[in-house]
C-alpha cells in the first residue's frame, strides 16, 4: 500500500486520515522532519495558515517540506494547506509566509462568513473529463491568479478553487468533510 503523510501540527487532520484509510492508504502523521522520508504522498490540511506558518518553522519542518514538495512528492493542500503551497498571498497577516511551491496567488477568507460551511457540488477535472465533487467551504481562500503551467480543475461561482501544477494539487474546499473521495483518489493516482 501507499503511505501518505498528513501534516499534523494543527487543523483538520483526522478527517483526512479517515478518508485516506478508507482508500487503503497507510497514514503517517507528520510532526518531525524525519517523518517525511519514504512518503508516497503528502496532505497539508486546512486550519489556519498563519498558525501553520509559525508551527512549521517552530518544528523545523519548513525547509524539509519545501524540499520534498519541490522534489516531486505528490501533495494535496486543502484550504489553509493551499495557502501554504501558494507562492503569493494577496492579503497576508503581517509577516505571514508560505512554502511557495505553487504558482498561484491566493486571497484569504475570500468567500466570507456568509458561506461559512457552505456545501455544494463542483465539477472536478479537465474540460470534457469532469466529475462531480461534494465540497464544503469554510472561510475559504480563492485563487485570483495562476501562472502558466497551473491547470484549473475546479471553479465555484466562477472563481478558481482547484488547481494542479505537476504533482501538486491545491483546493480551496474540504472534500474530507463531505466524505467525497475524488480528490484523494486523484492524489493517490499521482504516486
Ligand atoms: N481562513 C483560513 C486561513 O486563512 C483557512 C480556513 C480553512 O482552512 N478552513 O488560513
Structure summary, number of beta strands: 12
Low-confidence stretches: none
Biggest beta sheet summary: 7 strands, mixed
Name the CATH superfamily assignment: Class I glutamine amidotransferase (GATase) domain
Roughly what is the average pLDDT, rounded to an integer?
Answer: 95
Distance between the termini: 11 Å
Radius of gyration: 15 Å
Order of helices and strands: EHEEHHEHEEEEEEEEHH
Strand order of the largest sheet: 2-1-3-4-12-11-10
Shape type: globular
Strand content: 25-35%
Secondary structure class reads alpha/beta
Oligomer: single chain
Query: What's the CATH topology name?
Result: Rossmann fold
What compounds are bound to the protein? glutamine
The CATH class designation is: Alpha Beta
> How many distinct domains?
1
How many H/I helices? 6
Give the helix proportion (percent range): 10-25%
Task: Describe the secondary-structure layout.
Layout: E1 3-7, H1 13-22, E2 26-30, E3 41-44, H2 49-58, H3 62-70, E4 75-78, H4 80-85, E5 86-89, E6 102-107, E7 118-124, E8 131-137, E9 142-146, E10 151-156, E11 159-165, E12 168-171, H5 175-178, H6 182-189
Parallel strand pairs: 1-2, 1-3, 3-4, 4-12, 5-6
Antiparallel strand pairs: 6-9, 7-8, 10-11, 11-12
The structure holds glutamine.
Glutamine is lined by residues 46-49, 79-80, 83, 108-109, 138-139.
Amino acid at each position: 500500500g501507499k503511505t501518505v503523510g498528513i501534516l499534523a501540527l494543527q487543523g483538520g487532520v483526522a478527517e483526512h486520515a479517515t478518508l485516506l484509510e478508507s482508500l487503503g492508504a497507510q497514514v503517517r502523521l507528520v510532526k518531525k522532519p524525519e517523518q517525511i522520508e519514504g512518503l508516497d504522498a503528502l496532505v497539508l490540511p486546512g486550519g489556519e495558515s498563519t498558525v501553520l506558518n509559525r508551527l512549521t518553522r517552530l518544528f523545523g519542518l519548513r525547509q524539509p517540506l519545501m524540499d520534498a514538495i519541490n522534489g516531486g512528492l505528490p501533495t494535496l493542500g486543502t484550504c489553509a494547506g493551499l495557502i501554504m503551497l501558494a507562492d503569493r498571498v494577496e492579503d497576508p497577516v503581517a509577516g505571514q509566509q508560505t512554502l511557495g511551491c505553487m504558482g498561484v496567488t491566493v486571497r484569504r477568507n475570500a468567500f466570507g462568513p456568509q458561506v461559512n460551511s457552505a456545501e455544494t457540488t463542483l465539477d472536478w477535472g479537465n474540460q470534457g473529463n469532469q466529475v462531480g465533487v461534494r465540497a464544503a467551504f469554510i472561510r475559504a481562500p480563492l485563487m485570483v491568479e495562476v501562472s502558466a503551467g497551473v491547470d484549473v480543475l475546479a471553479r465555484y461561482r466562477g472563481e478558481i478553487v482547484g488547481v494542479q501544477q505537476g504533482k501538486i494539487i491545491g483546493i480551496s474546499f474540504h472534500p474530507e468533510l463531505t466524505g467525497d473521495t475524488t480528490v484523494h483518489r486523484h492524489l493517490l493516482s499521482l504516486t
